[in-house]
């Protein structure tokens, strides 16, 4: 029996989560638990709530099962489940999504969806983060408000169903992005976003100024093999991610600084 924790960053009532929940419930040999934020927590990244306790409320679903909503972040939701919120349930897999909008390239560092799956890696639990591009087809996560989640949910359910036969490598999560029109699937690496943000003064008040920082839709490189190129070509992008951010190629160069000598000089 595979014990799966389902969470997201759009909130427990979000259509993406509910569509994926129904697909996972239909699998054999799956014990599913749902713990998710009680409201939208998009772009919270790996934020956690350390200055206050967390409210948790049981939420009934239309099929008679229940989930749990917390007033914290996606990472808080994973922590609650991993620490024993549901008696007798210890997750073997974290599934996060389906996000309403893409999580591609550099954007994953902001994503609450990816952060929830990444928290599984921190805890030694494999994870899958899944995001759906809008029907507008733009790779900007803010573009469009119409989504179709059924194919993404069915595809991820098939992945989950195969994990007994093809387990994920230790310390790895899968970041899955599904375009609105699907013509294939590709294993990819992260692409490169080109942000076009600018500082716009919107209003002024006594002693205060109101600025807009995040403006134009970001561009991206169409380098073959990247997640951004794949979804642009109507292919599902499946990108393996891990937590180790160490720049291995920079270790030797850093040693040339002779840090011990710099410490002596500082003293």
Present the secondary structure layout.
Blueprint: E1 2-7, H1 15-25, E2 30-37, E3 56-60, E4 66-70, H2 74-82, E5 93-100, H3 112-122, E6 127-132, H4 150-162, E7 173-178, E8 184-187, E9 193-194, E10 200-205, E11 208-212, E12 219-220, H5 227-232, E13 235-241, H6 251-255, H7 259-266
Parallel strand pairs: 1-2, 1-5, 2-4, 5-6, 6-7, 8-13
Antiparallel strand pairs: 3-4, 7-13, 9-12, 10-11
Helix pairs in contact: 1-4, 2-3
Describe this structure in words.
With 267 residues, the protein is α/β, with parallel strands linked by helices. It has one domain (2-192, 220-266): Survival protein SurE-like phosphatase/nucleotidase (Stationary-phase Survival Protein Sure Homolog, Chain: A, 3-Layer(aba) Sandwich), CATH 3.40.1210. It is 24% helix and 26% strand. The protein has helices at 15-25, 74-82, 112-122, 150-162, 227-232, 251-255, 259-266, and strands at 2-7, 30-37, 56-60, 66-70, 93-100, 127-132, 173-178, 184-187, 193-194, 200-205, 208-212, 219-220, 235-241. The chain has a 9-stranded mixed beta sheet with strand order 3-4-2-1-5-6-7-13-8, with helices on both faces. The chain has a two-stranded antiparallel sheet with strand order 9-12. β1 (2-7), α1 and β2 (30-37) form a beta-alpha-beta unit. α1 packs across α4 and α2 (74-82) runs parallel beside α3 (112-122). The protein starts with a strand and ends with a helix. 39% of the residues are buried.
């Amino acid at each position: 029996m595979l014990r799966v924790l389902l969470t997201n960053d759009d909130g427990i009532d979000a259509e993406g989560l509910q569509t994926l929940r129904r697909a996972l419930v239909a699998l054999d040999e799956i014990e599913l638990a749902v713990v998710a934020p009680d409201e939208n927590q998009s772009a919270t990244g790996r934020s956690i709530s350390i200055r206050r306790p967390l409210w948790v409320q049981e939420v009934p679903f239309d099929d008679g099962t229940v989930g749990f909503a917390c007033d914290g972040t996606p990472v808080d939701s994973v922590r609650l489940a991993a620490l024993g919120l549901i008696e007798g349930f210890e997750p073997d897999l974290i599934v996060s999504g389906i996000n309403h909008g893409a999580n591609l390239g550099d954007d994953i560092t902001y994503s609450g969806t990816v952060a929830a799956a990444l928290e599984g890696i921190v805890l030694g639990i494999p994870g899958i983060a899944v995001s759906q591009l809008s029907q507008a087809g733009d790779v900007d996560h803010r573009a469009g408000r119409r989504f179709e989640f059924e194919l993404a949910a069915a595809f991820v359910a098939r992945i989950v169903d195969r994990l007994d036969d093809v387990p994920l490598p230790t310390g790895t999560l899968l970041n899955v992005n599904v375009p609105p029109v699907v013509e294939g699937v590709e294993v990819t690496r992260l692409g490169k976003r080109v942000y076009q943000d600018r500082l716009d003064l919107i209003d002024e008040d006594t002693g205060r100024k109101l600025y807009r920082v995040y403006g134009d839709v970001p561009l991206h490189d169409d380098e073959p093999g990247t997640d951004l190129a794949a979804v642009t070509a109507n292919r599902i992008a499946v990108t393996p991610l891990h937590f180790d951010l160490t720049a291995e190629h920079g270790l030797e160069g850093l040693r040339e600084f002779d840090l011990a000598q710099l410490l002596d000089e500082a003293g």
